[in-house]
Amino acid sequence: MKLEDLKHAGLKKWVQEAVALMTPDAVEVCDGTQAEYDRMIKITVEAGLATPLNPEKKPGCVLYRSDPSDVARVENRTFIASEKESDAGPTNHWTPPAELKKTMSALYKGSMKGRTMYVIPFSMGPVGSDIAKIGVQITDSAYVVANMHIMTRVGMKVLEVLGEDGIYVPCFHSVGKPLDTLTLDSREGKRSFKEIDNGKWPCAPMEKKYISHFPETREIWSYGSGYGGNALLGKKCLALRIASVLARDEGWLAEHMLILKLTNPQGEVKYVTGAFPSACGKTNLAMLIPTLPGWTVETVGDDIAWMKFGADGRLYAINPEAGFFGVAPGTNDESNYNAMRACEKNSIFTNCGLTEDGDIWWEMIGHGAPGKEIIDWKGNKRPAPQKDKSPKGEEIAHPNARFTAPAKQCPCIAKEWEDPKGVPISAFLFGGRRPKTVPLVNQAKDWEHGVFMGSIVGSEVTAAIISDQVGQVRRDPFAMLPFCGYHMGDYFKHWLTIGAAHDESKLPKIFFVNWFRKNSDDKFIWPGYGENSRVLAWIFDRCDGKGKSVDTPIGILPTADAIERPDGVSEADMAELLKVDVEGWKKEIADVRKNHYPKFGDKLPKELHAQLDAIEQRLNA
C-alpha cells in the first residue's frame, strides 16, 4: 500500500512529517501479508543480516546476530518524559519532553537516508476488541517489520478499524544508521557506490540510543537500537509503559502478567494471571504441563495482560500480543516443552548459536551441539560444546538470546486466547525468588492486603548476580519496576482505587507464590515445573472459598494436608514450605519500612502504611 492511499488524514500527515524529517529513499505501508513477511526476511538475508536455518530442522526459521552493543533492553537509556518530573517518579529516568524531542529530532534528521521507511499499522489485542489498542510504528528495519508481524496483528484490517479519524499511538523508530552514497577512486576514475549493511547489524552507539515515552501525548520515540523491546515498540513500550498510563486514566489495568486457563477434573474452568520478576519461571508457568491427574493448563498469554471490567462486574483480560518473545537459554524440553514446540517452525532466532547442520543451539537446551564446530552469537567459529553449558562469559548463545514465535503454534494455546471479549479473571498471582521467609503460597486477606503483597514483590540476590548484595531483596513491585509509565506510588493508588470502585466479591482473589524455598543444604524444597499444578489446584479451590486453609498473621495459608504432596516432598518439607517465619517476616517488614517504601515519598498510599502496621501488630501478638 502506498502512503497516498491512507484514508486517515491525521495519520497521513504524521507520516509525511516523518518522511520530511528522516528522508528515506522509499516509503511502504505494511499490509501484514505472508508475502510481505517473506520479503522482509529475504531483504535481511540478502543484506547478510540473517541466516536461513536448515528447513529439515527448523522450517521457515532464520537466525540473526545483533551488534554486541545491542543485545537487550537498555534501561539507562529508557525515558519517561512526562511534563512534570514528579509524575515519572523515582523508578524511571526523566527528561523534560521538549528538550528530549529537540535532541531526538536532531538525531532523526536524515536518519533513514538510503533506507526504506516502513509504516506498520498494528493492533495490540484481537483486531476490533474493545480492550485492544492500535499503534502505528514507523521504522527503517526489515527485521523489526518481520518481528512485528509475529508479535502483533499487522495490516489492512487494523487500518479498517482505525477508519478515517480513529485514535492510535504514534511510534517513531530508526536504527540510527543512514546509508550514504560513497565516491571512490578506481583505475577507471571516480565511481559511486551505494553503502549497504553488508552483514553489519545497523545501530547507533550506546550514548545515542534513546527509548523515550511521552505519557501526556501518548507517543513513543525510539532511536539507535534495532533489538527487542527497544525496537518492537508494541511490546514493553506500548503494551506497558504507555498502556499503564492509559489504564490509569481510563480505569483498567495494563500489567506485566501471564494469563492461564485452568480446568479441573470436573471440567470447571478458571482463568488466572501472574506477575513475576525476571528469572522466576514466568514463561515456564505460562506453558505448564501439570503433573496432577485430571488437570489441564492452557496458555492465553505468557507476558502481558490488559484487563477491563465487563457488564457483569468481573475483570476480563486479553493478551495484547500475538507471539512469544522468549529468552532462549535455559529453555528445553524439560523446563518448557510447549515453548520448544512453538518455535520449531516459522520463527525468528536472535543471538543463538548456529550448528554445523544448520540448526540453532543455546546453553541449557538439553544436549550438546552436534558436529565439531559451532558459530557463536558473535559469528565466530568455536569447538562444538559436548555439554549444554558453557563457562560464564564464554557462552555460545548470548544469555539474552531470543526466539520470536507465533502464539498460535503453541501446543497448549487456549481456544479463547483471541476472544475479543477477553477471559474472566479469578485470581492474581505474585511471586519472587525467595529461598526463605516467604511460604510456598499465601492468599491475601482482602484486596488492600493483596495490593500490599504486590507492592513488596522481590527476589533475593544470589552470588551469581551481584556479590556485594548477596542476601538482600531486590524489590520489583508487581513485576512492573522497569515498565510502569508513571510514578509507582500513583500506580499503587490506582490498584487501590480499582478495588474500592468495584464489588470485591467479583474481583480476582490475590495470592503470593514462591517456588524457590531452600533447605539448610541450599537445595530447593519444592520441585517446581509441572508440580506447581498442585499449588494451582489449591488456588483454584480458594477462588470459590473451598480448599483447606488457616488464617495467619501474613495471610491465608493452606493447611499441611491441603496440597497433595509430590514424590520427594515429605511431611516435614511441607511444614517448612507452609510455616510462618515470624522473625523472618519481622525483618521483611523492617526492610520494607526502611528501604523500600520511603522511595515513593508522600505518594505512597496511606493504606499501604496501614497494612504494614497491621501485619507488624499481628506478628507481635
Q: Could you characterize the architecture of this molecule?
A:
This protein is of the alpha+beta class and 621 residues long. It folds into 3 domains: 3-30 and 72-250, Phosphoenolpyruvate Carboxykinase, domain 1 (3-Layer(aba) Sandwich); 254-319 and 417-620, Phosphoenolpyruvate Carboxykinase, domain 3 (Alpha-Beta Complex), CATH 3.90.228.20; 324-409, Beta Complex (Phosphoenolpyruvate Carboxykinase, domain 2). Helices cover 27% and strands 23% of the residues. The chain has 16 helices and 32 strands. The strands form 7 sheets. Strands 13, 14, 15, 16, 17, 18, 26, 27 and 30 form a 9-stranded mixed β-sheet that branches. Strands 1, 4, 5, 6, 7, 8, 11 and 12 form an 8-stranded mixed β-sheet that branches. β17 (305-309) and β18 (315-318) form a beta hairpin. The longest helix has 17 residues, at 234-250. The radius of gyration is 25 Å and the shape is globular. The termini are far apart. The model is unreliable at 463-468 (pLDDT under 50).
Report the sheet-strand fraction: 15-25%
Distance between the termini: 70 Å
Largest beta-sheet details = 9 strands, mixed
CATH structural architecture of the largest domain: Alpha-Beta Complex
The beta-strand count equals: 32
Our count of helices gives 16
Domain module count: 3
SSE-based structural type: alpha+beta
Overall mean pLDDT: 95
Q: Share of helix among residues? A: 25-40%
Shape: globular
Low-confidence runs:
463-468
CATH topology of the largest domain: Phosphoenolpyruvate Carboxykinase, domain 3
Radius of gyration: 25 Å
- What is the C-level CATH assignment of the largest domain? Alpha Beta
